[in-house]
Design brief:
The complex is a heterodimer of chains A (about 130) and B (about 850). The mean pLDDT of chain A is about 85. By secondary structure, chain A is mainly α. Chain A has one domain. In chain A, helix 1 packs parallel to helix 3. Chain B has about 850 residues and is mainly alpha-helical. Chain B has a domain of about 150 residues: Cytochrome c oxidase, subunit III, four-helix bundle (Four Helix Bundle (Hemerythrin (Met), subunit A)). In chain B, strands 1-2 form a two-stranded antiparallel sheet. In chain B, strands 3-4 form a two-stranded antiparallel sheet. The radius of gyration of chain B is 28 Å and the shape is globular. The N terminus of chain B is likely disordered. The chains are: A mainly alpha (about 130), B mainly alpha (about 850).
């Protein structure tokens, strides 16, 4: 019997993928700064390279989230709606529901990624 | 990662089975169901495993611990009522605040979630029971034994006294803390095992045991929350178990993980504790919000506004809450930019949390709210929680936190979030679901009194504490001098505490007052839409008369005749022809039925296994190693006995008619079986504990100039390669065995499994030999200790894997495992995939990583 693959129509994984991207961005940013300050920073404690890395990382994360949102719209028929209840008893509606949830979580994850990029804008040294 | 649905039509559009028109047949079916699901009576009552019995035990025990911890709080408030008071000694006060926090968090807040879910989940899903009833019973007994042990220590002046988060180095010095810290570490590790067992059960329950037709978009919000929270437990608790292991190894065997003189670092504990500790806050909060989400549509009489937005916020909160842990560590001197990340995530989590509450408010505005005691508690809880959430946003900012850190402001904040976010919604749930379980309503009058006493008492107690904290009173002080201006505020708080207690006493009175003469509650007394209210009054112990088809989010509102058709057994599994307890297993996405799962009935085996495991931890606390070892062996034997006689039984026929013309298999293996999913989920949790140890290794690396230091021994690379090769060979052999065995090669299982076990054990021994021959001594330096703890972890897991392999071989010899019925082999193969990953990571850390640090 054929097993559905990771990103195939209807699978549950896209729902958690956006937040997975946030988690990766969060941990990598935190680790980059923590390791840099513990191991690599010179006397001035300049964070220049870390801030650059976080900027790149943030763009990558946002791009990945955008791709996922597009996937949710195209393959799942997800829409950003508030009134629609998505309560129909059909496999297509279930897919739309998952697409909708994915889209909402993409929006939330994008905001959370931006939040987590702010410290890199504010702080320029390890102190 | 989703499994494909079974062939055959989805809940076929057949006419409702005519045969069910016959009242005599229905009566006979009910007799058979009643006999099969009968609860054991007399002394055998304690062998029960039904979710409704175990769930009630669980709830009562958890509330018992809640009341106990509440009494401890009252004693503390008496002590603090007046300045320079000596009602309690300092030592006793320290024990009381530690036990109050520990018990409220570990013995009440988390277990009550599991308790309520074990009781409710099957009924919410129109199911007869949970997929692993004996596992629930085992988890309950672990919780009851471990909890009693931890709680009882306070009577022997032996309770832990270093605060509920047990910071070393205070707690790593055995002569400073006495036995208390060991009781905390071992007693709670034992209870965490129970929590993870419940989480596994609940995840599999939500994913695989939904009624036919309950697609993901139709699943009740409560189930979403359970799924999310159980998933969080899998990633939050294991790091703490890893931390407990490290701290106990230091206390018992002097392995210096937190000892700075030998390279250790106490900050590591704070990381491991709060990676658990902050998600924990949401682990206890979300299930209570789930209760509110169940009440709101019922009492507003309209569907929830923004259902999918609530799903979004549950999932979103679950993830974001893992990015907050270091906001408990703002005062430890992390770089400012690190604090910034955690502060940002702490603010971000307010977004999904707020979305849920706005959805509730919107629903209440749209509908016509019916006033009731459950709604009173729910709304009071939300009001308190919102206030606590707002102070949370304040303390999430490092600048403010440095002022308020460790003061009564924090005490006020956490009680606002926890009492508003957990206790009040739970009491709402108690009033709401009480008739569902007992067929009697609680008193409306007493309920209102209880609510207002608790609500007013709460605010009198905790609102002034914000001010007490801002005036500088630190938390956890035993007493204070009069001239600091804290006395009036403390006296007010103490008075309020007793008002809360009076309110709670009224609830206890209401729950336990005899209700013999009170009439039975009407069926579905609140007019709720949830399938759990379809049960007849008085209730039966079979869970559901038959497993219904659900085609709507609010079945009792929208599916006409549903209750009558359930009563008449017109859906699936209306009978128990073979005298077996049976439930329906369905696929994850669309809940199409795939299998009839037989579940075992009452037994003492789980109680025995839990008692032996409890004894093992208790003897370990007192360092009675021989008895500990004996009990550990006994536990393994009891669990094998339980599994051998109760799981993966070969059915007498391959499939059976499940009703409505649907024929389903009675046995499944691999991804189609619930057992495989349970193993997969358990191993995810287990692997996250291992990741905690890997994190410890890298943490030490960041804290040292060179880790390993130039003079440290390097594990012997040749032996490590040998060990890795042997373990990978054992893993590959398991893959091969599973395939060959499925193709009819019984000998592969009979001889191959023991061979794989030998290979694995030899591999683990080679890992140990690599450390031994390099002269690594765990008490010398934290590097040596970290290497040894990784090998210890690997060795223990490989040994368990070897027992599993021998179990499979024995199963094949005994004829309880055949190529057609090979679920055990699939599960063990899955386990060994994780072993291969563990061995690879260990090899990389022990063998490859030191190369980057430069050789000696």
């Amino acid at each position: 019997m054929k097993q559905k693959t990771l990103f195939e129509e209807g699978s549950l994984w896209p729902v958690i993928a956006a937040l997975g991207i946030w988690a990766a961005h969060f941990l990598l940013s935190y680790w980059a700064a923590a390791l840099w300050c513990a191991k690599a920073a010179d006397g001035s404690g300049s964070l220049f390279w870390v801030r650059l890395a976080i900027a790149v990382l943030t763009l990558l994360a946002l791009a990945a989230i955008a791709w996922l949102a597009r996937h949710a719209v195209r393959r799942y028929g997800g829409r950003l709606t508030f009134e629609d209840d998505l309560t129909e008893d059909s496999a297509a509606e279930r897919a739309r529901f998952l697409g909708h949830a994915t889209l909402l979580l993409c929006a939330l994850s994008a905001v959370a990624v931006l939040f987590d990029a702010v410290p890199a804008v504010v702080f320029s040294t390890c102190r | 990662m989703t499994d494909a649905p079974a062939s055959g039509p989805m809940h076929p559009v057949l006419p409702h089975p005519d045969c069910q028109d016959d009242p005599a047949l229905r009566e006979a079916q009910e007799q058979r169901l009643r006999a099969v699901w009968k609860k054991p009576t007399g002394w055998r009552y304690f062998s029960a495993v039904n979710n409704d019995t175990v769930g009630v035990w669980y709830i009562l025990t958890a509330f018992g611990f809640f009341a106990f911890a509440g009494i401890l709080a009252l004693l503390m408030r008496v002590q603090l009522a007046l300045p320079d008071n000596d009602f309690l000694s300092m030592s006793l006060y320290n024990q009381l605040f530690t036990m109050h926090g520990t018990m409220m968090m570990f013995l009440f807040a988390v277990p009550i979630f599991e308790a309520v879910s074990i009781l409710l989940l099957p009924e919410l899903l129109g199911a007869r029971d949970l997929p692993f009833p004996r596992l629930s019973a085992f988890g309950y007994w672990c919780f009851a034994i471990g909890g009693t042990f931890v709680a009882g220590s306070v009577f022997f002046d032996a309770a832990p006294s270093s605060g509920w988060f047990m910071y070393p180095p205070l707690t790593s010095e055995p002569h400073l803390t006495g036995i208390g810290a060991d009781i905390w570490l071992l007693g709670l590790s034992f209870i965490e095992v129970a929590s993870i067992a419940a989480a596994v059960e609940l995840i599999v329950g939500v994913l695989k045991c939904r009624p036919p037709g309950m697609r993901l978009n139709l699943m009740p919000l409560y189930c979403w929350y359970i799924l999310v929270v159980a998933g969080m437990i899998l990633f939050a608790f294991p790091p703490l178990i890893a931390g407990d292991l490290l701290l106990e190894m230091e206390r018992a065997f002097d392995w210096p993980f937190f000892d700075t003189t030998r390279g250790g670092d106490p900050i590591l504990w704070q990381h491991l504790f709060w990676i658990f500790g902050h998600p924990e806050v949401y682990i206890v909060f979300l299930p209570s919000i789930a209760i509110i989400a169940s009440l709101v549509p019922t009492f507003a009489r309209v569907p929830m506004v923004g259902h999918s937005w609530i799903v979004l916020s549950a999932v979103g909160t679950a993830f974001l809450s893992f990015g907050l842990w270091a906001h408990h560590m703002y005062a430890t001197g992390l770089p400012n930019i690190s604090l910034g990340f955690f502060s940002a995530a702490s603010e971000a989590v307010a977004i999904p949390t707020g979305v849920q509450i706005f959805c509730f408010i919107a629903t209440l505005l749209v509908g016509k709210v019916k006033r009731s005691v459950p709604m009173l508690f729910a709304m009071g809880g939300i009001a308190i929680f919102v206030a606590g959430g707002l102070t949370g946003v304040m303390v999430a900012l490092p600048g403010f936190d440095w002022q308020a850190h460790d003061s009564y402001f924090i005490v006020a904040h956490l009680h606002f979030t926890l009492i508003g976010g957990v206790v009040f919604p739970l009491l709402a749930g108690l009033y709401y679901w009480f008739p569902f379980q007992t067929d009697k309503l609680l008193s409306e009058r007493l309920g209102r009194w209880a609510f207002w006493l608790m609500f007013v008492g709460f605010n009198v107690t905790f609102l002034p504490m914000h001010l007490t904290g801002l005036l500088g009173m630190p938390r956890r002080v035993w007493t204070y001098p009069a001239e600091l201006g804290w006395d009036t505020l403390n006296l007010v708080s103490s008075a309020g505490a007793f008002v809360i207690a009076a309110g709670f006493a009224l609830i206890v009175l209401d729950v336990f007052r005899p209700k013999g003469r009170q009439p039975l509650a009407p069926r579905n007394p609140w007019g709720s839409p949830g399938i759990e209210w379809s049960a007849a009054v008085p209730g039966e112990s079979w869970g559901a008369r038959c497993v219904p088809i659900v085609t709507s989010r609010y079945p009792l509102w929208e599916q006409k005749d549903l209750v009558r058709e359930i009563d008449e057994g017109r859906f699936y599994l209306p009978d128990a022809e073979e005298g077996q307890r049976e439930m329906l297993v369905s696929d994850i996405l669309d809940a199409e039925p795939t299998q009839v799962q037989r579940v075992p009935g009452p037994t003492y085996k789980t109680l025995l296994a839990a008692a032996l495991l409890g004894a093992c931890f208790i003897f370990g606390t007192y360092k009675l190693w021989w008895l500990t070892g004996l009990c550990a062996a006994g536990t393994v034997a009891a669990i094998i006995w339980w599994l051998w006689t109760g799981t993966s039984q070969i059915p007498e026929k391959p499939e059976k008619a499940a009703g409505r013309g649907l024929t389903l298999p009675l046995y499944a293996s691999g991804t189609r079986s619930v057992g495989w999913w349970a193993m997969f989920i358990t191993m995810i949790g287990d692997f996250s504990a291992f990741v905690g140890l890997v994190f410890a290794y890298f943490f030490f690396w960041t804290r040292h100039e060179a880790f390993p230091a130039a003079d440290a021994g390097r594990p012997d690379l040749r032996l490590l390669v040998t060990g890795l090769a042997l373990i990978l060979a054992a893993w590959a052999l398991m893959e091969l065995i599973r395939r060959r065995h499925a193709a009819g090669g019984i000998a592969w299982a009979r001889w191959g499994c023991p061979l794989a076990a030998l290979l694995g054990l030899a591999g683990a021994a080679a890992f140990a030999g690599a450390l031994w021959s390099a002269g690594l001594e765990p008490t010398r330096h934290v590097y040596d200790a970290t290497c040894w703890v990784l090998v210890l972890w690997l060795g223990a897991h490989v040994s368990v894997g070897a027992i599993m392999q021998l179990y499979c071989a024995a199963g094949s010899w005994a004829g309880r495992m055949t190529p057609r019925y090979d679920a055990d082999l699939h599960n063990v193969e899955l386990y060994w995939n994780f072993m291969a990953a563990t061995a690879l990571c260990s090899f990389a850390l022990l063998g490859l990583f030191p190369l980057t640090a430069g050789g000696p």
